[in-house]
Design goal:
By secondary structure, the protein is of the alpha/beta class. It contains 11 helices and 5 strands; from the N terminus they run βαβαβαβαβααααααα. The radius of gyration is 17 Å and the shape is globular. The chain has 2 domains: 132 residues, Rossmann fold (3-Layer(aba) Sandwich); 61 residues, Arc Repressor Mutant, subunit A (Orthogonal Bundle), CATH 1.10.10.10.
Length: 209
């Protein structure tokens, strides 16, 4: 039996996933948490095989939680479960230690398949993204913008697009405000924009076709 912890601040998501696996012979949702700090409290007290985690966790965002989690509990596999574009965030979160990335638009069969694959030591991304990456590796398509961004740049971009100010980002990522400004300047250059509004719009609507 694969023991799954759901980390999401939306009650409908937590309830829905628990109901989904109630009759499953292979997967059991053993708990759900709403914040990054609750996530660590739960894992410290319970045996967990797979964490299904939203990126936008209160108190400690999902990407920061992921990096810390992989340092402290490397045997726990993490699948990021999000509404944010896979093309922008999947590769970076997997580089940071995630074992998979699922869009919240996928069907129940896909969720089960991803959890099973990750629990058995695999990495899960959608077939579409896998094909894009394969094309890129063979040089058949231009390089994608998401490949230009470092993990830290993705974190800063995510926090900017969710309305955080430089000071708040600095506190959350444990860096100084000047460093945040430096990352913001790099992001503007890499995403070819000249102001914060366009940068946020790029983060929200960027399509890497």
């Amino acid at each position: 039996m694969i023991k799954v912890l759901v980390a999401d601040h939306h009650p409908i998501i937590r309830t829905g996933l628990k109901m989904l696996f109630e009759s499953s012979p292979n997967v059991q949702v053993i708990g759900s948490v709403t914040t990054g700090r609750e996530l660590f409290d739960f894992i410290g007290k319970n045996e967990v095989d797979v964490v299904l985690s939203e990126i936008d966790l209160p108190e400690l965002n999902g990407i920061t939680a992921l990096r810390t989690l992989k340092k402290e509990y490397n045997d726990v596999n993490v699948i990021m479960f999000s509404t944010h574009p896979e093309e922008i965030y999947a590769v970076s979160t997997i580089k940071a230690g995630a074992s998979g990335y699922l869009s919240k638009t996928v069907g129940t069969d896909t969720i089960i398949a991803a959890i099973t694959k990750v629990a058995n030591g695999g990495i899960y991304i959608s077939n579409e993204l896998a094909q894009r990456l394969a094309f890129d590796e063979r040089g058949n398509k231009p390089s994608k913008l998401y490949k230009k961004l470092s993990m830290r740049e993705v974190e800063v971009l995510k926090l900017l697009s969710s309305g955080r100010r430089n000071k708040e980002i600095a506190q959350e990522l444990d860096i100084n405000e000047k460093t945040v400004s430096t990352y913001k300047a790099r992001l503007m250059k890499k995403l070819n924009v000249t102001n914060l509004v366009d940068l946020i719009n790029q983060a929200r609507h960027l399509e890497l076709g």
